[in-house]
Amino acid sequence: QVQLVESGGGLVQAGGSLRLSCAASGRTVSSYVMGWFRQAPGKEREFVAAITWSGRSRNYADSVKGRFTISTENAKNTVYLQMNSLKPEDTAVYYCAARVVGWDYWGQGTQVTISS
After folding, report:
1. Interval 38-75: pLDDT, tens
2. Residue 9 burial class via C-beta count within 10 angstroms: exposed 0-12, middle 13-18, buried 19 and up
3. Secondary structure of the chain in HEC code, one letter for each residue
4. 25 burial type by CB count under 10 A (0-12 exposed, 13-18 middle, 19+ buried)
5. Binning pLDDT at 50, 70 and 90, where does residue 29 land?
6. What confidence category does residue 27 fall into, taking pLDDT thresholds of 50, 70 and 90?
7. Are 48 and 81 spatial neighbours (Cβ–Cβ below 8 Å)?
């Protein structure tokens, strides 16, 4: 079992920054690929970014490339999503997830709201 707890959401103006954190716990958490997803009102959940715990493999959705950075802090079993140059269309609930084969584990989500 893996438990994921997100934090760091909030309300910021367009052009601002936020850093989301995802604290992961569980005996084999280091064997999972970690990811961030988001879901805006009335829309389906969409992939944002993913990373391996080594940090050697990362990928991003086209909509966030160059603005968002995913990273890990292995000593704290924590995954971060640094979000810069935020836009109103980034408004969503952001979820942390862990994957072995499928995205099997999810956090409760944290709200990010960008005002124009």
Report:
1. 999 999 999 999 999 988 999 999 999 999 999 999 99
2. middle
3. CCEEEEECCEEEECCCCEEEEEEEECCCHHHCEEEEEEECCCCCCEEEEEECCCCCCEEECCCCCCCEEEEEEHHHCEEEEEECCCCHHHCEEEEEEEECCCEEEECCCEEEEEEC
4. exposed
5. confident
6. confident
7. yes
What pLDDT is stored for residue 30 in this prediction?
Answer: 82
Of the candidates 114, 115, 102, the one whose C-alpha atom is nearest the C-alpha of residue 47 is 102
